[in-house]
Structures are given as structure tokens and as C-alpha cells.
Design goal:
The protein is mainly alpha-helical. The protein is built from 9 helices and 2 strands; from the N terminus they run H-H-H-H-E-E-H-H-H-H-H. Strands 1-2 form a two-stranded antiparallel ribbon. Strand 1 (134-137) and strand 2 (140-143) form a beta hairpin. The longest helix is centred in the C-terminal third of the chain and has 33 residues, at 228-260.
């Protein structure tokens, strides 16, 4: 599953959602990018669950998918904050759809991750190779089947699932009361938040590439071949890039129209007084 083409799709998703600043002019663009990220994450977890059910997914590929979906959850968090800070009457169907699919995706991710770590050394299509799988923790390499990390994972993911359920309950209560939160409270439009998103995107790329490098002996022949599915994954990546180009083009065109608009008599008089 983690072929270069699939990784490129993930990297582009993380970088684009990180580089676009959270500001009033970019809200609509971020809504589109958030929806694309959620669809990508949902496709990953659905594929992983199906392959697990068919006995075709090994521990290395499962860990790789968990890595990607864990990093994508940061993008999901931004989408949720965006939804909660918008006034109820301004929430679009697209935003509601993004949150609904995000909830389904995260519930599947956390439940499936718990299943993976419960089995751990016995998981997948090649359990005899699981002791060879290496995991990257803050740059350090550890065996994926080491007991302490398994225990840590079985604490983190159940807590994440419980927090998801609690968060969606609070969301439904807020929707019922037609509440919205103040955007300034979260500092989403601050330089610090933007730098944090960019740093996380870079970190996710580094960690995943290190994971591939450390487990190069486990990569199956032909995994990087350009099959039908791999080509589709790369082509779909262009959709997000086109969204950004289209947004920049429309913003530039709107700016030109503003410059070409005739000034009012009051504005012209102000300019004349200033040059007199």
C-alpha cells in the first residue's frame, strides 16, 4: 500500500493544508482542502480495513497507514475548529459533510488501530516477519512488536476513541443550541499556528520516509510499479493543486477589478485636497 505514488498524495495533502494560512480570504479554499484531506483519509482506512479482512495486509503496511492517518488527524482538527467558529447560519453543506466523514474516518481509524495493536506480533498476512518491522519514534528506531510500545498504543488509541465520542457529543449539543466559538480563542490565524502546521507537515514526511528506509528489506517487489490505482492516486492529487491555483487566480482578478472601479466623488475630493 505505501507506494511512492500513495505517499506523494499524502505529502501534497499535508503540505498544501499547512502552507495555506488560516485567514478570511482563504476560508473557502481551506474548506475545499479539508474535504479533500478527509476523503483521502477515508479512502486509506476503508482500503486498510478491507485488506485486513481479506488477510492481505501485513504489520509494516498497517503501521504505515496508522502513521499517515495520525498525521492527517491534525488536518481534521483544523476542519473541526473551522466548523465550530463559523456562525450557524453560515455553515455550508460541504462543511457539515466534511465533519460527518471525518467522524466516520476517525472512528474506523481508532477501532482498527486497537485491533492491530491487540494482535501486534500475530497481525497480518506475514506474522513471522513482524519482529523485523521497525517503528520510528521521534527519530529513534524501535521494533514494532516491543512490549512497551504496544502497551502505549493500547492506551492512546482507546483514549482517542473515547475523546472522539465525547467531542461529537459536545458538537451535537452545540449544534442543538446554535452555538459557535470565537475564532480568536483558538489562535488559528496566528503565525505560531501556521508555523506549527508547516513543522508538522515536514515532520510527517521525514518520519514516513525514515520508516520506508528502515524497512526497505520488507518492501515487496513491484510495490512502486505504476499500476492503475497508483496512477489514479497521483492524478487525484492535482485536484488540490488546481483549487489553490484557481483561488489565487480569482483573488488576483478580483483585485484588478477593485483597482479599475471608478472612485466616488468623496474619494476624489479627498485625493484632490491631499494634493492641493
Amino acid at each position: 500500500m505505501p507506494s511512492m505514488q500513495i505517499r506523494v498524495n499524502f505529502y501534497v495533502t499535508m503540505i498544501l493544508t499547512a502552507l495555506v494560512p488560516y485567514a478570511e480570504p482563504t476560508h473557502e479554499l481551506l474548506d475545499d482542502l479539508n474535504l479533500s484531506a478527509v476523503l483521502y483519509g477515508l479512502s486509506l482506512i476503508v482500503t486498510a480495513v478491507i485488506q485486513t479482512a481479506q488477510g492481505q495486509l501485513d504489520l509494516y503496511h498497517a503501521i504505515f497507514v496508522i502513521h499517515m492517518l495520525t498525521f492527517l488527524s491534525h488536518v481534521y482538527g483544523n476542519a473541526m475548529t473551522r466548523f465550530l467558529t463559523v456562525k450557524p447560519e453560515e455553515r455550508s453543506f460541504r462543511m457539515a459533510t466534511t465533519i460527518a466523514m471525518q467522524t466516520i474516518s476517525l472512528a474506523m481509524v481508532y477501532s482498527w488501530a486497537i485491533y492491530v495493536w491487540v494482535l501486534d506480533a500475530r497481525f497480518g498476512s506475514q506474522p513471522e516477519c513482524n519482529d523485523l518491522v521497525k517503528y520510528i519514534v521521534f527519530g529513534f528506531t524501535v521494533r514494532a512488536t516491543v512490549n512497551w510500545y504496544r502497551v502505549l498504543a493500547l492506551v492512546i488509541f482507546p483514549l482517542s476513541l473515547a475523546n472522539l465520542i465525547r467531542g461529537r457529543y459536545l458538537l451535537l449539543r452545540a449544534l442543538h443550541r446554535s452555538e459557535h466559538l470565537e475564532e480568536e480563542k483558538y489562535g488559528m490565524n496566528s503565525l505560531k499556528a501556521w508555523l506549527g502546521s508547516v513543522a508538522l507537515a515536514i515532520y510527517s514526511i521525514v518520519i514516513l520516509e525514515l520508516t520506508v528506509k528502515r524497512n526497505s528489506s520488507l518492501i515487496l517487489p513491484g510495490e512502486s510499479d505504476w499500476t492503475f490505482g497508483q496512477v489514479v492516486a497521483v492524478v487525484l492529487t492535482l485536484a488540490s493543486i488546481i483549487e489553490i491555483v484557481d483561488h489565487l487566480y480569482n483573488a488576483r482578478r478580483a483585485g484588478r477589478k477593485m483597482l479599475k472601479q471608478p472612485r466616488s466623488a468623496t474619494e476624489l475630493q479627498t485625493v484632490a485636497d491631499g494634493t492641493a
